[in-house]
Write a structure and sequence with these properties.
This protein has one domain (21-163): Mog1/PsbP, alpha/beta/alpha sandwich (Protein Transport Mog1p, Chain A, 3-Layer(aba) Sandwich). 28% of the residues lie in helices and 44% in strands. It has helices at residues 2-18, 73-88, 147-159, and strands spanning 22-26, 31-35, 40-43, 47-51, 57-63, 92-102, 105-116, 120-131, 134-143, 162-163. The longest helix is centred in the first third of the chain and has 17 residues, at 2-18. The protein is globular.
Length: 165
């Protein structure tokens, strides 16, 4: 019985780790990130895009050299808001904003929601991250209907962000 239980536990651990088995390097941003193996990923020199099955959750990293021009936190926040507006327009609702550290990397973030006629409401976070001398902007976008299913997955993805060694 013990062997069966250990075998089941090993399978559960393997399946959980296996779901995040693909490590991607975004060299222009000096970042690496783990993306679930069943997601569609496009990795070019200027952008890394990852889409969950059914496009319920999206994860993007892009070069963001404009962040070097921000003199303070307010200027950095405004750069993020300008980026969001350029991406989806001005019809969004801003939530929490702030500063955090993830794996020793400082990030400034803006939480927001917006409505899309085709897909419904999206719950998003966009943040600027600096790794070495490179700035990147990261966006997490999850449809409200799938938020409960993808919240922990997105937390794992963001928690896996590290500077390339």
């Amino acid at each position: 019985m013990k062997r069966v239980l250990l075998g089941v536990l090993a399978l559960v651990v393997f399946a959980t780790v296996g779901a995040f088995a693909k490590l991607y390097k975004f060299k222009s941003g000096n970042l690496q990130v783990d993306i679930p193996s069943d997601w569609e990923v496009e990795n070019t020199s200027g952008k890394l895009s990852a889409y969950s099955p059914g496009d319920v959750a999206l994860f993007f990293i892009e070069e963001f050299s404009e962040a070097a021009d921000a003199d303070d936190e307010d200027a950095g926040k405004q750069l993020i808001l300008d980026y969001i507006t350029a991406d989806i327009g001005s019809d969004y609702e801003t939530g929490e904003t702030g500063f955090e550290t993830v794996n020793g990397l400082d990030i400034y973030y803006v939480d927001y929601t917006y409505d899309d006629e085709s897909y419904g409401t999206a719950i998003c976070t966009t943040f600027v991250i600096m790794a070495g001398d490179s700035y990147s902007i990261v966006t997490i976008d999850v449809l409200e209907d799938g938020y409960d299913d993808y919240e922990k997955v997105m937390d794992k993805i963001v928690g896996s962000l590290k500077k390339i060694k």
